[in-house]
Design goal:
2 domains; globular; alpha+beta
Length: about 240
């Protein structure tokens, strides 16, 4: 009888290899969560875009993409139905006009980090981030808003390019700020401009209250560096 029970238990117990086996795809999904509007790129399919290929061939970028997916999922939980729809549209703009304009891993690392910071700050709504930066040569900081969606003013800035007889059009922006007292008073952004001769990184500012507008070539900037760079540029060219 004892031998019979041992035989039955052995037959009903799954093999260790079967119980513990996990496919690479399943492990990746468990690590990064479900695909969202971030545009998951962890699997490089044939015909993948340049950006998708850069991401999936770089373990650090794959991890950042997973962090971004989790940050977006957490942000969605804080929003109502209308807020979720707005967040999805905002995320798609970020993919098209910020992430997909990167041509190297460094750019992707920076835009991922910036976007994760924005999504992690989403608690009660889709609001811009307050900041107070000290301009060079001054002691007091200047209150400003770092726009959570740097491409929210893309149409406005392209209209301003036309009105000021500037060649080309803006493809997208890495960062945008508003240091005016009112809505859209002193806007500035670090963007990519496309002209007949190619693509160029620029910074531009607009003081819509007094009609000032300035644009000049500038290095790509991200995070706090972009905020400070745009503040100095705005105070010099568009502060009235």
């Amino acid at each position: 009888m004892t031998l019979c029970w041992v035989t039955l238990l052995a037959a009903c117990t799954p093999q260790a290899s079967d119980a513990q086996a996990t496919t690479p795809a399943a492990a990746s999904e468990q690590a990064s969560g479900p695909a969202t509007a971030t545009g998951s790129s962890t699997a490089c399919a044939e015909g993948a875009s340049q950006v998708q290929t850069l991401i999936c061939n770089d373990p650090a970028l794959v991890r950042q993409e997973g962090e971004l997916a989790r940050a977006e999922a957490t942000a969605r939980e804080t929003l109502d139905a209308a807020g979720k729809a707005k967040l999805e549209a905002e995320q798609q703009r970020w993919i098209q006009h910020t992430r997909d304009l990167c041509s190297d891993a460094y750019c992707l690392q920076q835009v991922f980090a910036d976007r994760i910071k924005v999504l992690s700050a989403t608690r009660a709504g889709l609001i811009d981030l307050d900041s107070c930066e000290v301009p060079d040569g001054q002691q007091q900081c200047v209150d400003m808003l770092v726009l959570r969606d740097p491409n929210s003013q893309l149409t406005t800035f392209n209209t301003l390019l036309d009105e000021n007889d500037q060649e080309g059009s803006l493809l997208g922006c890495n960062a945008a700020t508003n240091i005016g007292a009112g809505h859209n008073d002193l806007l500035a952004a670090n963007c990519i401009l496309e002209t007949a001769s190619g693509k160029l990184n620029i910074q531009l500012c607009s003081n819509q209250m007094v009609g000032q507008f300035a644009i000049e070539p500038a290095p790509a900037a991200y995070g706090t560096q972009a905020t400070r760079q745009l503040l100095a540029f705005t105070l010099q060219h568009c502060a009235g």
